[in-house]
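INFO batch 0412 | record 1 of 1 | parsing
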Amino acid sequence: MRPFGPRPCTLVVCRGCCCGNAAKHPGTDHEGQLSRVREAAAASGGRLVVRTSDCLGPCGQANVVVVQPSTEGRRRGGRAAWVGWALDQDSTDDLLAWVRDGGPGIAEPPATLTLQLIPAPVENRRRR
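INFO prediction complete | emitting tokens
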């Protein structure tokens, strides 16, 4: 990634107290999910970056992944999309397909993934 050049789409994968926790979600392959998105980033030719976060906040909707738009996606009006309950292979497939298609601002998320979109914690605070 170039410091001042175009930014690729970024997946921020929560791995804090609840997300990535085998005790809370024993049927989920948390390490496998993270490995898959990292492998996709390595194979993307710089079109995807993956970061992990200690805690993104909405613990009741774990596992949480934030899809941040690329520079081009943001230019086209795309904003970060928060995805909750990303617990299975289908969710990971949908996230990776959306990023391959361009991510926020460039492509619409897969229909099944739209059911998992959650408000960002900041949006929740503004509504109170």
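INFO post-check: The CA atoms of residues 14 and 53 lie 5 Å apart.
INFO record closed
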